[in-house]
Amino acid sequence: MQPIATEGLRVLLASSLEVEFLRPADSLAHAMELVHENHPDILIVDKGFGLHAVLDWLQAIKLGEHVPKIVVWGVSVTEAEALRFLQSGAKGIVRKTSDLSAILACLEAVAQGKTWMEDAVFRDSVRSDRYPRSELTPREQQVLVLVEQGFKNKEIAAELGIRPGTVKIHLKHIFEKTGVRGRYGLAITGLKDKGVVSLAS
User: Fold this and answer.
1) What percent of the chain clears pLDDT 90, i.e. is strictly above it?
2) How far is CA 195 from CA 89, 147, 189, 201, in A?
3) Which of 123, 121, 125 is nearest to 185 (CA)?
4) CA nearest 96: which of 46, 142, 144?
5) What three-state secondary structure class fits 76?
6) What is the DSSP track for 98-154?
7) DSSP code of 50?
8) Is the Cβ–Cβ distance between 46 and 1 less than 8 Å?
9) Which residues pair with 43 in a beta bridge?
10) Residue 74 to residues 32, 35, 47, 78, 186: CA-CA distances in angstroms?
11) Quick check: 54 and 43 in contact, CB under 8 A?
C-alpha cells in the first residue's frame, strides 16, 4: 500500500472508535506474517497486488489458525472482480476513490461482522425491487441459483440436463423479468436478497 494511502487511512481511523490502525504491510507475504503475528480483526488488501494474487492469497489465508475479515480496495473494481472477491471470502469491497465516510462505513460494518460493498460497483446491474423473483418459472429459478453460485452456462446445462442454448434463453427471460443486467448482477443481487452482502453508496 502506498505511503500516502497508509497515512490517509491512519488519520481516518483515528477518528473512529470502532477501528484502530495497526501497521502496513508492503506485500501479500508480509501481510500473511502480520496476520500470524498480530491477529488483526480486519485486514485491508490492495487490489493493486494483482487480481489472481489477491484471490490466491484469500484462499491461503482461510487455511490459517486466525482468519481476519478482509476488505479489498482498489482504484477500480469490476462486477466480476467484486463477485470473485466475495466468493473467495472478502467481507468488504471499496474503491480508493470513495469518500472518507464510505471507507469508514465499510470498515465499521465489516468490524461488526457484516459484508459491505459500494453499490456503485453494481449500480447498473442490480435490480429494482419492483421486479420480484417470484415471477420466475421453477426452471428459471434453478438457473438463477446456479448463476449465483458462479456456474458457467455449460456447467448449468450439464447440471440441469439441458442444452447450453436453452440456458441462454432462460437467462434472457431472467434478465427481462428481474430487470438485472448481466450474470454478475444476478449473482450479487442474489447475495443481497439472502442478506449475505449489504450494498451501500
Assistant:
1) 24
2) 15, 17, 10, 17
3) 125
4) 46
5) coil
6) S-HHHHHHHHHHHHTT--EEEGGGGTTTSPPTTS-GGGS-HHHHHHHHHHHTT--HH
7) -
8) yes
9) 70
10) 19, 21, 5, 10, 23
11) no
Full DSSP string of 23-90: ---SSHHHHHHHHHHH--SEEEEEGGG-HHHHHHHHHHHTTSS---EEEEEES---HHHHHHHHHTT-
Residue 27 pLDDT > 60, yes or no? yes
Cell numbers of 14, please? 483515528
The helix/strand/coil state of 69 is strand
- What is the predicted pLDDT for the residue at 2? 63
Q: What is the pLDDT of residue 126?
A: 47
The pLDDT tens digits for 93-149 are: 988 888 888 888 888 888 888 888 876 655 544 444 445 556 889 999 899 888 877
Cα Rg for the chain, rounded, in angstroms? Answer: 18
Count of residues making up the chain = 201
Distance between CA atoms of residues 49 and 52, nearest Å: 9
What is this structure's pTM?
Answer: 0.66
Contact yes or no for 58/85 (Cβ under 8 A): yes
Q: Please tell me the distance from the alpha carbon of residue 134 to that of residue 138, in angstroms, as a whole number.
A: 9
- Give the separation between CA 91 and CA 94, rounded to whole angstroms: 10
What residue type is assigned to position 145 of the chain? V
Contact present, 122 and 199 (Cβ < 8 Å): yes
